Amino acid sequence: MESAQPVVVAIDGPSGTGKSSTSKAVAAQLGMSYLDTGAQYRAITWWMVHHGIDVTDPSAIAAVAGKPEIVSGTDPAGPTITVDGVDVAGPIRTDEVTARVSAVSAVPEVRARITELQRSLAGSAARGIVVEGRDIGTTVLPDADVKVFLTASAEARAARRSGELQGVDVHSTRDALLKRDAADAGRKTSPFVKAGDALEVDTTDLTLAQVIECVVTLVEEKRAGK
């Protein structure tokens, strides 16, 4: 009996919807690889800031988009990310990077570079892969076997993010989340929108365990050929 084809799962949605926690848990539970695409955009943004590139100048960003070597580890139990051999898992989560990632991500040359990396990782994942981001089901992997779009109210998202980032004001977090959503939805290249064939799951009133169970069921049904 031939083994089933590896399943590719695309999980999109804005920050604070439980996307990362869900994606990692689903991948771990089903023995699949995991890729946080947002970390890759944060990594290239960190490199730009670290090297003094003017991130308000798209042409300056485009000129060096191909320079950093970004390597993503895809073990859901301990995903890693390095830039030019340097572990940047911590530095990419700073406010400095967060404030600039939308501007860097909007540059077409950056998106082309990172999308190529993402497709290469997804294509080589022998056990299947869960890929989370903001344009996976629409642009990066439009032929993904399972597509999920997680949503939640702005208030719930802000509360979750503030809980992750201790001491952060909920109202300012909410404003920052909505500002990023608007910026990403308005960019010309790969705007942030829900794929037409994605299952939308509102996580506002769901526990993380319920969201994970929902996605795991979808993947298992796909594996079973339903």
Plain-language structure description:
The protein has one domain: Rossmann fold. It contains ten helices and eight strands. It has helices spanning 19-30, 37-50, 58-64, 95-98, 101-105, 108-123, 136-140, 154-164, 170-186, 208-223, and strands spanning 8-12, 33-36, 70-72, 81-83, 86-87, 129-133, 146-151, 199-202. A hairpin with a 2-residue loop joins β4 (81-83) and β5 (86-87). The chain is globular. The mean pLDDT is 89.
Gyration radius from CA atoms, angstroms: 17 Å
* CATH architecture verdict: 3-Layer(aba) Sandwich
Stretches where pLDDT falls below 50 for ≥5 residues? none
Per DSSP, the total helix count is: 10
Instruction: Work out the strand percent.
Output: 5-15%
Instruction: Estimate percent helicity.
Output: 40-55%
CATH topology: Rossmann fold
Strands in their spatial order, largest beta sheet: 2-6-1-7-8
CATH class: Alpha Beta
Largest sheet: 5 strands, parallel
Tally of strands:
8
CATH superfamily: P-loop containing nucleotide triphosphate hydrolases
User: What separation lies between the terminal Cα atoms?
Assistant: 18 Å
Shape: globular
Q: Which structural category do the helix and sheet elements fall into?
A: alpha/beta
Oligomer: single chain
> Helices and strands, in N-to-C order?
EHEHHEEEHHHEHEHHEH
State the domain count. 1
pLDDT averaged over residues: 89
